[in-house]
Amino acid sequence: MRDLIAFQCEQCKRKNYTGSRNKKKSTEKFANKKFCPACRSHTLHKEAKV
Length: 50
Ligand SMILES: [Zn+2]
Description:
Layout: E1 2-9, E2 15-22, E3 31-36, E4 41-49
Antiparallel strand pairs: 1-2, 1-4, 3-4
The chain binds zinc ion.
């Protein structure tokens, strides 16, 4: 079972990336530094629902 998730920029709240994850294996939320086109810089992206 895989859940579709989105990565949301912490600063502008845009959803810039999507992905999937195994719900059974990982219960903690992802938080990655990714490039945000809106902020034009690398910001912290947190997992959010699509
Ligand atoms: Zn942003």
